[in-house]
Amino acid sequence: MKTKTSVKSGKNIKRDWHLVDVATDSLGRVATKIAALLIGKNKPEFSYHLDQGDYVVAINTDKLKSTGKKLKQKTYYFHSAFSGNMKEFSLAEMIDKDSRKVIYHAVLGMIPKNRLRDQRMSRLKLFVDDKHTFADKLPKQL
Description:
Blueprint lengths: L16 E5 L5 H13 L15 E5 L10 H4 L1 E5 L6 E5 H20 L6 H5 L2 E3 L16
Parallel strand pairs: 1-2, 2-5
Antiparallel strand pairs: 3-4
């Protein structure tokens, strides 16, 4: 008796919506949860060559937690390609400036670097507080 493996086509993918509260865990833990949902690794029909991930709405990014001395020691580097124009910011400065960028860069580093990366990241919706515009699309919690 032979078994056949069937692979879903990209046309009939059902995408769910997930709400993630950033204030519950540290930066790395939240970023891995979000990355797994965006990639679609939680689905039984997961395959690497198809974009089967879900939509993720992350709230409370201003209440981001960090462990140890990362607020002062973790640095982000930005360069504009002009000489002498490299800027560096600590994690605390980035959170004060725009906390959504911190989550975005953490998740971006965990998504595989391939052609599907931009599609997956476009399904990430970040909000500073608990008010968001996607309440009608999220499933009702009992």
